Recover the amino acids of this structure.
């Protein structure tokens, strides 16, 4: 059995360089690959394009890359929690491609499955469809969207084994699952790394064939993006 394990995050990110495109898993701050993002900050790679549902917050997640002006372009769905993102976008410092959330997920899944493009009704008649092919099916108009393209996909899972098989926990599955195998190299960081064959095949969400490198993550903060509590009576 092929072992996909690497010693640490530095080994996992070998080959990362300026001007690359990265897929980054997570939804809000849930299930983000914290170790990989921190290493990207340390490597100080520049002019990168990030495909991610959101842009983190000002001082955490992808917000750390934005603070250091490492991101040239964001392909995202929801970016409303990051003031620095807003400032850079409005000032023209950051190129932004806003994409409907379902379309973004499908663009990743299409790449994962080897499909070059797909038709979707989302965005037809709006700025999203400008410059794109449209076609009618059964009386309804659709927009042709191309599959996402990336050099690396960075994902985070709850458990994984040395063969790269992954299990996600609850909502932390989010965009992580569809990004596995959707880039040239998929790097998975896990909370618990187990020997190959340790996982129940019936519980595996992503088979190891979609993962090229896997490592044991550490020091996860698992921040809550917006804590909402009931007032004391």
């Amino acid at each position: 059995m092929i072992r996909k394990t690497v010693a640490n995050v530095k080994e996992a990110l070998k080959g990362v360089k300026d001007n690359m495109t990265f897929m980054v898993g997570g939804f809000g701050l849930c299930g983000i690959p914290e170790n990989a993002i921190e290493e990207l900050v340390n490597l100080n790679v520049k002019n990168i394009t990030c495909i991610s549902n959101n842009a983190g917050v000002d001082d955490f997640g992808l917000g750390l890359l934005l603070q250091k002006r490492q991101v040239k372009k964001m392909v995202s769905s929801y970016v409303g929690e990051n003031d620095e993102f807003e400032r850079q976008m409005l000032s023209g410092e950051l190129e932004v491609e806003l994409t409907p959330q379902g379309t973004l997920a499908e663009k990743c899944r299409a790449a994962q499955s080897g499909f070059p493009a797909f038709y979707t009704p989302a965005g037809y008649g709006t700025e999203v469809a400008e410059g794109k092919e449209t076609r009618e099916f059964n009386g309804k108009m659709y927009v042709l969207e191309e599959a996402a393209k990336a050099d690396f996909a960075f994902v985070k899972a709850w458990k994984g084994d040395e063969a790269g098989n992954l299990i996600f926990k609850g909502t932390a599955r989010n965009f992580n699952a569809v990004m596995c195998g959707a880039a040239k190299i998929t790097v998975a960081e896990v909370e618990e790394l187990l020997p190959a064959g340790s996982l129940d095949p019936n519980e595996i969400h992503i088979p190891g064939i979609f993962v090229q490198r896997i490592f044991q993550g550490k020091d996860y903060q698992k921040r809550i993006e917006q804590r909402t509590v009931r007032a004391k009576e």
About this structure: The first helix runs from residue 9 to 12. DSSP finds six helices and eleven strands in the chain. The radius of gyration is 18 Å. Residues 18-98+150-216 form a domain with the Glutaconate Coenzyme A-transferase fold (CATH 3.40.1080.10).
